[in-house]
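Lab notebook page, bench 4
Experiment: in silico fold of construct C2
Operator: M.H.
Input chain length: 205 residues
Purpose: comparison with the prior construct
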Amino acid sequence: MLIEHRGLRPRVHPTAYIAPTATICGDVVVGAESRVLFGAVLTAEGAPVVIGAHCIIMEGAVLRGAPTFPLTIGDHVLVGPRAYLSGCTVEESVFLAAGSTIFNGARLGAGSEVRINGVVHIKTILPPDTTVPIGWVAVGDPPRILPPDRHEEIWAMQGPLHFPRTVFGLERPAAGESLMPELTRRYAAGLGRHRSDRVLEEEPG
């Protein structure tokens, strides 16, 4: 399904394939010979999504352009089932396995691999040919790549990256307070722009 969002339409190369149950919304470019499979979602939420040539976006993957964080994928990239990518840059010939998660401002160098359920955190820069093992977490620039049971070490690096500020534009609240009321209010207001979306009857030109 192709959807116009905020007056912007997806642009799909004539040689690309979009599965009938995939959703492509807004300022999204899908390159030559790329394939977007069943249930995948590519949505430009305030910034573009650009998919290169000969890419495979597998079933159930979600790729989002986020405010101030476009999502760009180079050529010959495979994004596995249930992967989640938001506002990141993925260079050419990268493999992202099932369940991998790549956050805003991250950059993955050419030839990198993020294996099953691996995480690349906000603003993390992976040099070319880096591997994030199954279930491990990459954080920082230069990155440290740690197993998930080393939470204190991960948090020591992740905390100063200011996830709430980077992703939602909110400061971390004082102890005993919650940012969720303001976060959900702002997020809902932004997502409310989808009320004026329009499903396209034909492939956009």
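Observations: The chain has a mean pLDDT of 94. The first helix runs from residue 151 to 158.
Next step: discuss at group meeting.
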